[in-house]
Amino acid sequence: MKIDLALEELHRSENDLAHELLQVSERHKVDHEIYHLGRDLARWSQRHVREIADVGKNYGLDLDPEPEDEAGLAERLREKGAELIGRRGNPALLLLRDLREIYMKASGVSVDWELLAQAAQGIKHTDLLDVTKRCHPDTLRQMRWANAKLKESATQILVT
Amino acid sequence: MTRKDRIAEPWGTRTPYGPGEEWPVRVDTHLDEGLAPEGVDRWVQTASILHSNGDALDIAVKDGRIAGVRGRAGDRVNHGRLGPKDLYGWQANNSADRLTKPLVREGGKLVETDWDTAMSRIVKRTNELLAEQGSSAIGFYTTGQLFAEEYYTLGVVAHGGLGTNHVDGNTRLCTATAAAALKESFGCDGQPGSYTDVDHADVIALYGHNMAETQTVLWARVLDRLAGANPPKIVCVDPRSTPVARAATVHLAPRPGTNVALMNGLLHEIIANGWVDSDYIEAHTVGYDELTMRVQEYPPDVVARICDVPEEKIRDAARIIGQAERLLSTVLQGFYQSNQATAASVQVNNINIIRGMLGKPGCGILQMNGQPTAQNTRECGGDGDLPGFRNWSNDEHVKDLARVWNVDPMEIPHYSPPTHVMQMMRYVEDGSIRMLWVSGTNPAVSLPELARVRSILEQDRLFLVVQDIFLSETAQLADVVLPAATWGEKTGTFTNVDRTVHLSEKAVDPPGEAKPDLDIFIDYARRLDLKDKDGGPLVKWHDPESAFEAWKECTRGRPCDYTGLSYGKLRGGSGIQWPCNEENPEGTERIYVDGKFWSRPEYCESYGRDLVTGAPLEPAEYKALNPEGKAVIKAAGYLPPHEVPSRDYPLQLTTGRTLYHFHTRTKTARAPELQAAAPEVWVEMSAADAEAYGIAEGDLAEITTPRGSVRAQVRISGIRDGVLFLPFHYGYWDNDGGHAPDGAGRAANELTITDWDAASKQPIFKTAAARLKKIASGDRPSSAPTTTGSAPVAPIGYETAGSHNAGVDEDVRTTSGGGTR
């Protein structure tokens, strides 16, 4: 049985997604919806990290329930930087790149949840299946958000 | 006939009536001092332009000037009544400081010029930008105070002619959430209620809706029910002790930002007690199971802690709402401008839906509007949506619109949702929008975080066009200022929240060279030589009536069907409710009768959005969710606001209106009675907070948030503890003549946060963390009105009252003027 490996991978990929969302949020503080939603949606992944760590105990895993945190100071510096560069053209392209990255990472997480759900059904572990049912829809919403923001932003950024 | 000071008594004489009876007629008249009705030269038909109720009135013309107003007895909306802003506000039209000539910026200063010079500059800049960058460089920001014909023309020019997606109205600040909530629940904008529901309801629940101040005549209707036999019960949700709260059976004053939790608590009780219409839910809705699951997390004790509202009051309110036989629910800015705006407003819809209380007398929802013509901004494309409630993500709808306009579908931007104003400001900030045309609104005072807004609008690289009737704060920053005609000086139609269309006719000439907004937009289209696909002019109309006829064609077969209306039909009698067409020649009082909605995938205006992330649903998602066009029940969990009180900012700040002013006071401050009733900004705090801060009534205080600070005199009012209230009307034009504060700020939006609801894109004005400190002791009480939500908790030695010529004649009639319902 390799469920522990799948959980470890998901623990890593959710942490990574939360980190990415926070970083993007900070980089684009002047784009207020990106800033606020990035932080809101990072919290979903952080919650998933806790759930994964919790259910992981059943599979002999000792995963850190605390999401990896940003260094506070670096965060402030990046926010300040975002305010300063917010009036030049290039951050816009960076925004597309960042949203694309979120979309890709969330897609990866989504696939990981699917794999886990398939396994949970195979071995009839309802606790594990319940975790996937609680968390996976959030991941899909994170993906759709990134995709929608990409669509909404692309035209102005690319034709300007 | 009685004479009333309607500053002191804003709602006038009571005319009590019972359930199912006709609301009595009371005709309100106010004329220039010394002028009697028989001395009036002409009476000219129109409706209110200084609030959203849509009260029908006649303008009195004397010697070519507007000299007063009289309510129209036969109109379904007001049965002759008028509110204080209508009774006194018309005087602003005659102000000596109206804009009478176009202005252009020369050597850094605005100087007078002629129309040809002003328009040529705009057209030259437009063409330069189209050549350099394309239409993405150009944005339009309009209002909720023009006429349907004008919005439609602007929409055709911007969407069909220039092809820009950057079109929005200031309705984004007031009713974007009304539209969004209706789209989420019913797939389409359009009110599932009628003002006549007040006549029948046994429970009226007002959510964040201070109706007494925002729609005074509708509140008079409620007061008359309360004074009559078998009065309705009132449930009020508001952190302030408003006149509505004081009349309420149950008043809930939740902590700002917690509306979704409160609504889920009410839904929890309604569902747990079985106060639902299971047959209706089964036959006409989707999504109920998810709602029942979601609200399980919100029993009253949990909600009481989140909202800081007594558990028993939540149960009381839920019982009243749950046992109502005819439930009217109304919603306004307390929900629309707060945290989780759309999610909270949708939960109000859910209550009426699961109780099966739609489409029957007394059973309705009024997701209210904040401005007189906001409904038209939304219908005609002034807010960036496609006209006629067409769905931008439905290719067939775009094709159909292209047919109406005779353009290629590719000409109409529909690759993403329209750009909302806050995003437009961001594009101006990053330099990708380089021309912004503002018509009839004042973003330099009304948008959040004014220091930021000013820094954006002041940029040299922005070409700013402002079309207005006064030199507003925003106009002072413009490169070109176009003097517009206003209500009473031009003809057009507009529609209120309960879908009543009124004709507003020209009574007098505009001052100087001021022109109707319609003429300005048509002139722009002609000068740009905008063509349809056969080489004919894109804008095929030349005056209000021909524009209305074109608009009618655009609405054919759509929910807001105007095809049965005409100027002739609207002239003389009552306003008429859309849809008005061959099947409903006299209009439609109630929509969504028998659970029939406009939400079929191929017909609906919107597929909806994720209430948290704001991501639009894809067509396939919506088809899977709601294949048969039912009402959509959408659940939502509570999320705390992005800015919560902290050690540095321990209080919560909310902003709002007063009865006596409209928006940034450009008109109401120029009406002496209204200005005198609320002459200066104030800040409200509770008695307990005042004591804790060592503050007395009338002391000068400074309110600070991370964005800035404002100084105001304190009014100790019935607001909940921990919350401050600032009216948002006060800017700088009548202070020192500038566009920005000289020293201490007085515009509430110096303090507000740049953040918006992800689904409706409406800015959040009602949840900011703030601190307050005393600056000086006062030598007199605050001048805030004593008649309204700002009423003092203890006597202060004076009562708000009008001057000697504030008298209004009220003629209560026992028989109606006919044509009323």
UniProtKB/TrEMBL annotation, chain A:
Superkingdom of source: Bacteria
**Protein name, as recorded:** Uncharacterized protein
From TrEMBL, chain B:
Task: Could you list this entry's UniProt keywords, alphabetically sorted.
Answer: 4Fe-4S, Iron, Iron-sulfur, Metal-binding
Q: Matching PROSITE patterns, A to Z?
A: 4FE4S_MOW_BIS_MGD, MOLYBDOPTERIN_PROK_2
Location of region: Disordered: 1-22, 775-821
Q: Does the keyword Metal-binding apply?
A: yes
The 4Fe-4S Mo/W bis-MGD-type domain is annotated at 41-97
GO MF annotation terms:
4 iron, 4 sulfur cluster binding; metal ion binding; molybdopterin cofactor binding; oxidoreductase activity
The UniProt record lists the keyword Iron-sulfur: yes
User: Gene3D superfamilies, per this entry?
Assistant: 2.40.40.20, 3.40.50.740, Dimethylsulfoxide Reductase, domain 2 (3.40.228.10)
**Entry superkingdom:** Bacteria
PANTHER family listed in its UniProt record: NADH-QUINONE OXIDOREDUCTASE SUBUNIT G (PTHR43105:SF10), RESPIRATORY NITRATE REDUCTASE (PTHR43105)
Tell me what this protein is called.
Answer: 4Fe-4S Mo/W bis-MGD-type domain-containing protein
